[in-house]
Amino acid sequence: MSNLAKGRNGSKVAPYLYLLPCMLVFAIFVFWPFIKTVIYSFTITDTRGNPIEFVGLENYIRQFKSPQFRNSLKLTFKFAPMVGIPTFIIGYILAALASERMRGSRIYEVMYSMPMAVASAPASVIWFMLLSSGQNGVVNWILNSEIRWLLDAKTALIAVAIVTVWLNIGANFIFLLTGFRNVPTELIESSRIDGAGYFTRLFRIMTPIATPQIFFVVFLDIVTSFQAFAQIRLLTPNGGPSYSTNVLIYSIYQSAIRDSRYETAFTQSIVLFLIILVITLIQFKTEDKVVYYQ
């Protein structure tokens, strides 16, 4: 009996022992830095980021009174739909076109998903050359224009959004294509026999069944748009002309790395976290109403 009891106790403890290394890594590199960020956001720090004085909500009040911070918030909420909506629409269209397997389909599937394999840094370098001013830029040469894409406050954010959309299309395509191809072939065939056209099958059958993937992709696009950084840093240094691309994530970088104002960076990080948290909670609150699970 004693051996049996030990065996049962051992089987209960074993899963936690397997999870322990993973939880330690998360505790050291995720949970503890997050807790420190929350605590330090209520303090004044030195140039090394060490707290020297507790000031309560003063950092948050100062930030919301700052025109530059309010501009960063405005640009962040403007940038998110500029990236999220086109990324989803283009990914949806490409996935719908590729949903039916046919000869040679592997070729354009790889082509559509290729941007996913390109890191932000080399992609930014490529797009920097494409969007160069005057006739030297490929885009201006094609359009026969002289738009200063990255040097004009009116177009800088649009240019960065185009690059971000291009980078994220591959992930959208893969997930949505998986959702569309999960639709039972028997259901598609029976709808064809009943006379349903392509768009009827797409919107009445395939899209409802693919709602779990669509829900995930929408969430992914929102989070990605809020966290886009490398392309902003490389294409429009110092937040672009007239701070036209100084979104919140880039403002955090500037506060910490350039200005050594770590308490400001901590405060802005918590604000960004709360924004994403609220959006996530809203999404999961609506999940049962918009997502169909087979």
What does the model show?
- The chain has helices at residues 2-40, 58-65, 67-97, 105-113, 120-130, 138-143, 156-181, 185-193, 198-209, 211-227, 230-235, 248-258, 262-285, 287-290; strands at 43-45, 51-54.
- It is mainly alpha-helical and 294 residues long.
- The chain folds into 2 domains: 2-40, no CATH class; 66-290, MetI-like (MetI-like fold, Orthogonal Bundle), CATH 1.10.3720.
- The longest helix is centred in the N-terminal third of the chain and has 39 residues, at 2-40.
- The radius of gyration is 24 Å and the shape is globular.
- The two termini are 45 Å apart.
- The mean pLDDT is 86.
Short key terms for the protein model shown above:
single chain; two-stranded antiparallel ribbon; mainly alpha; 72% helix; MetI-like fold; 294 residues
Question: How do the strands and helices of this protein lay out in sequence?
Answer:
Layout: H1 2-40, E1 43-45, E2 51-54, H2 58-65, H3 67-97, H4 105-113, H5 120-130, H6 138-143, H7 156-181, H8 185-193, H9 198-209, H10 211-227, H11 230-235, H12 248-258, H13 262-285, H14 287-290
Helix pairs in contact: 3-7, 3-10, 7-10, 10-13, 12-13
